[in-house]
Amino acid sequence: MFHDCFISFFLFFFPLSFFRMVKIYNRLHRTMGTLTYFTCHSWEWTYNNLDMLKNQLLPEDRKVFYLDPRPLHWPHYIENYCLGIKQFILNEDMSGLPAARAHLRKLRNIRYTFNSILMVVLWRVLIARSHLARNLWYLIMGLVSKVCQEFLDYQFHEALGCGETCHATTCLPVCLSTSPASHSLVDNCLLPCL
User: Fold this and answer.
1) Which of 4, 78, 92, 118 is in the most buried spot, having the most CB atoms within 10 Å?
2) Residues 160, 175: contact at Cβ < 8 Å?
3) Where would you find the membrane-spanning parts of this chain (predicted)?
4) What is the pTM for the complete model shown?
5) Under 8 Å between Cβ of 186 and 160
6) Could you report the per-residue pLDDT of 73-87, keeping only the tens digit for each?
7) For the chain, which residues score pLDDT lower than 70?
8) DSSP characters for 134-182?
9) Are 50 and 68 in contact, with CB atoms under 8 Å apart?
10) How far are the Cα atoms of 9, 117, 125, 133, 144 from residue 130, in angstroms, in the given order?
11) Which helix (H) or strand (E) holds 95?
């Protein structure tokens, strides 16, 4: 019974996917043919004239005719470059671009979720099976816990102005037990800590 369903599923969807793959292949082949001239040739460009022109410009003209490529935001430039190739060389419609970006974002999130779940499952299996992995996990978590605790203690003492002179275990209960109406919180903390 399962084999019949599998065969009917295969026969139903295979011709559709086959023709779709042929269409995609033809489109890719056409695109590669269009870009062959640009990908198979090399050019050497000199910009001596540009340097000479840049050196001869007045400061006011340098602001109008901007010739320095260093402050360009390159990711934005490359994105516009690829969009220009898509629109003007490949003659593709740009209306499907937001849907394509949303689809890529969805695929990226699915990949991250799948990889995270796979990593957690593999790590749990490894911890369950290996004593060394379990000890390594406890060591890493202990170090992370200690660093977080030191950071929070430091932030607490910086906020109160205690500095290095007190410890949170002795300072905090006294600071919280004194009334803030009589003295400031920093005075209440510093007196018992010193």
Assistant:
1) 92
2) yes
3) 6-22, 112-132
4) 0.41
5) yes
6) 999 999 999 899 888
7) 1-18, 160-194
8) HHHHHHHHHHHHHHHHHHHHHHHHHHHT-TTS--HHHHHHHHHHS-TTT
9) no
10) 43, 20, 8, 5, 21
11) none
